[in-house]
């Protein structure tokens, strides 16, 4: 089976923080939901940013969707195929209304306005968010914002989901709704979270970023 995303000897250093990724090898295959754990500041979000070209690797290789990705132009396609859910929904919602936010991605991919609006409405309905189309995004609750950002990502029809602390700051009901939604999706995923119960119910395997190295976790190491 061919990996959707693969890194080889991936290296990244911050000027003051030092090395956060040191020759990291990683592969994500279709259908996998990989939990990415590690201490605050370990480099987990940096890793996701590198995969979609929001940061440029200092060394090593990133292969995504069958091609080596090195320059900014190489990552344009990657960002369309790997939907990134940011930790803070307010970093992702920037249009006045929900419908405009969800339609923005398809419009950016070259869909007509009619097509983009239809995709946005269908995506919202599939997540149980019909009726939110004309709502003002900055007036939504935290759980509602999270579901709308997920809709905005799914409207682009990605192959992979990159989720950075998706359950952060959600109440119990919103968290369960998000979990149920993600469990029903067929997408391969990389999920960063400090919510072990959330990860236990969602992930198919776990890796941990420790001392700039990515370590495969087993059930025994998770239990410890």
TrEMBL record:
Tree of life domain: Bacteria
Pfam families: ABC_tran
Stretches assigned to the ABC transporter domain: 5-224
GO cellular component terms listed in the entry, alphabetical order: ATP-binding cassette (ABC) transporter complex
PROSITE patterns to which the protein is assigned, alphabetical: ABC_TRANSPORTER_1, ABC_TRANSPORTER_2
A single MF term (Gene Ontology): ATP hydrolysis activity
UniProt KW keywords: ATP-binding, Nucleotide-binding, Transport
InterPro entries tied to this protein: AAA+_ATPase, ABC_transporter-like_ATP-bd, ABC_transporter-like_CS, ABC_transpr_CbiO/EcfA_su, ECF_ABC_transporter_ATP-bd, P-loop_NTPase
Coiled-coil segments: none
PANTHER family: ENERGY-COUPLING FACTOR TRANSPORTER ATP-BINDING PROTEIN ECFA1, HEAVY METAL TRANSPORTER
UniProt record similarity statement: Belongs to the ABC transporter superfamily.
Protein name per UniProt: ABC transporter ATP-binding protein
Organism: Pontibacterium sinense
Lineage of the organism: Bacteria, Pseudomonadati, Pseudomonadota, Gammaproteobacteria, Oceanospirillales
